[in-house]
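=== RUN LOG ===
request id: a7f3
mode: sequence -> structure
chains: 1
length: 211
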Amino acid sequence: MPAIKVITPILGDRYYHIFNRGNNGQHVFFTEENYRYFLRLFHQFIYPYVDLLAYSLMPNHFHFLIRTKDSISFLKDRIPGFSQEMESQTNEVEIGKIISNQFRKFFITYSMAINLQQNRTGSLFSKNFKRLEIEDEEYVRYLAFYIHFNPQKHGIADDFRKYRFSSWAAYNLVKSTHLNRQLLIDLFRGLDEFMKYHRYFHEERDLNLLE
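=== RESULT ===
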């Protein structure tokens, strides 16, 4: 796979692969509650601003597949006197700045809690979280598999379908979820094709693409 620039500006109405790892490869999750807390903070800081399609959290790194919102209508309840004129004047660059700042607050809040828990100081994550804009829908589909398969790729799970801290299970549930499952399923043209795609790459062990 060719080298890809992974520190790109976030813009509105785009697909992104968001990922990072612990500083010097160290752990960022130490207990099961840490994984749950990280997801709660994502819901608090990021969820109103993006559609979450897939995620996977592992001891020393994480992956998110998101689509950023195309307007700031999500701020109606947060800005006194919010108007349609304000919404129309806000472009994709400004939306991206808002979302980037939310990510910054998300990671700072989590890092402070873990540093207190572990009695540590300094950066928890590598500097500058990675964000890769995905323009090709086929790559979005592949990335969904890549993220779900990641725990097995790194030997953290024997079978990615049984790993608890990823979004895979949510695509097998009827109950509601914070993921925008339909958006991703539509990209696969149906849940059956979503499952077949994951099964194909898993069975073929096409690891040459999983760099």
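=== NOTES ===
Residues 15-209 form a domain with the Alpha-Beta Plaits fold (CATH 3.30.70.1290).
DSSP finds six helices and four strands in the chain.
=== END ===
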